[in-house]
Structures are given as structure tokens and as C-alpha cells.
Amino acid sequence: GQNIDQPTEMTATEGAIVQINCTYQTSGFNGLFWYQQHAGEAPTFLSYNVLDGLEEKGRFSSFLSRSKGYSYLLLKELQMKDSASYLCAYMDSNYQLIWGAGTKLIIKP
Amino acid sequence: EAGVAQSPRYKIIEKRQSVAFWCNPISGHATLYWYQQILGQGPKLLIQFQNNGVVDDSQLPKDRFSAERLKGVDSTLKIQPAKLEDSAVYLCASSAGTGDVDEQYFGPGTRLTVT
User: Fold this and answer.
1) What's the number of CA atoms in the CB half-sphere (13 Å) around residue B35?
2) Which of A5, A81, B45, B63 has the largest count of CB atoms under 10 Å?
3) Which of B23, B57, B92, B103 should we substitute to test contact with A (largest number of A Cβ atoms within 10 Å)?
4) DSSP string for chain B
């Protein structure tokens, strides 16, 4: 089956750190993607994890635990422009992306 | 490098009318995807092309939706006739298609409103 969950909305303060969690259940797995989507715009690629552990890319880091079906996206030194929806998606055994509904991140000054 | 182009950006039609969307992928990208994204949800794959062949169309409502990718480049997605529940953003994406796991690049989308 296809099941992927992430919080609907989160609020954080400019300059702070926020962690967006994503859990999934699947019998076939070929990696997990995080995309950023600003309101009214197309999703843009942030990260891809296929092995367990933390991948760091500037202010953004992504973590994966395959045994737990769990990933998180960590955003540091938050800026107002980080206000967006963050979509996690896993790639199934057919190499198709199965998307979560997205987490709307609101940054307050 | 030019990105994925889509047109129109916005479309408003009445139910039972027809509509067509156009997508031009990144040059050289073999794989093209059409997604439907309803407000507040993640994208849902409608159809995937590899060059001009269909890889997956299992979630395409074939009684009203059709898509083609002639010559393995541009693609069109058509809805005929439209229903109220078709109101959504239709995203086109492309990837290089050189491996099983490719980053997908999205176009700006077409926002369809069916009244």
C-alpha cells in the first residue's frame, strides 16, 4: 500500500531551527525526496536520501531511517523566504514518486 | 538552461466543456510526467512518458482524460468533458531519464477552475 504522512502546518520564528517530520509505510522503497513549494509555484527539489543518515546542504539537512520509515527535513537560521510548503515523497518499487500532502511552514519575525 | 514550460497558466471553464494543456520539457529530457495537485494535497501522478511511450497511466481517468507526447518532446493533456472535481493545478515535470532515480523538474503549472 501507499501511506505517507507529514504535519499539515508548522510555525517557527525567523533565525530559529525547525524540523519537519515525514513517516511512510511501503513494501518497496527507492529513496525519499524533499521538495519546497512556494504558494502558487511549482515544487523545487531540495534533497534525496536513499541510505540511512543525515545529508547536509547549506542551511537545509535531511535525515532518513529506513528501518523506522522516517525522515525529517531540518531548516536552520530560518529566513522569511523559507515560508513555503515542504513536500516529502518516497520512490516506490516501480520508481514512482508517492507524495505527502505537504507541510505549510509559516515563519514569523 | 530553460526550464519546463507550460501553458496556459490559468484557465476557467464550465463543467462539461473541454480543455487542453501544453507542456514543453527541458531539452533532452526523455521522461515527462503530468501531475494533478488539488489544493492542500500533494501531486498525484496522472501519466508518465518515456520518450513518446507511456510508462504508467494507471491513475489517469481515461473516460475523460487523454494525453499524448508526439515525437517524444512536447506533450498535451486534455480533459473532455470537465467536471467540477477537476479543479486543480496541473503540473508537468521532466527528468533526464538516464537512470531509475532522476530529479524531476517542474513547470509552473496550469491552474484549472471548473465552474
Assistant:
1) 25
2) B45
3) B103
4) ----EEE-SEEEE-TT--EEEEEE--TT--EEEEEEE-TTS--EEEEEEETTEEEE-TTS-TTTEEEE-GGGS-EEEEESS--GGG-EEEEEEEE--SSSS---EE---EEEEE-
Q: Is B44 on the interface with A (CB under 8 A)?
A: yes
Residue A2: per-residue pLDDT? 58
Strand ranges across the sheet with A3-5: A3-5, A18-25, A70-75, A60-65, A53-57
The pLDDT tens digits for A9-57 are 999 999 999 999 999 999 899 999 999 999 988 899 999 999 999 999 9
Query: How far is the C-alpha of B115 from the C-alpha of A22, rounded, in Å?
Result: 35
**Scanning the structure block, which residue is given the C-alpha cell 505527502?**
A100
Chain B residues with CB under 8 Å of A40 CB are: 111
Question: Are B42 and A44 within 8 A, CB to CB?
Answer: no
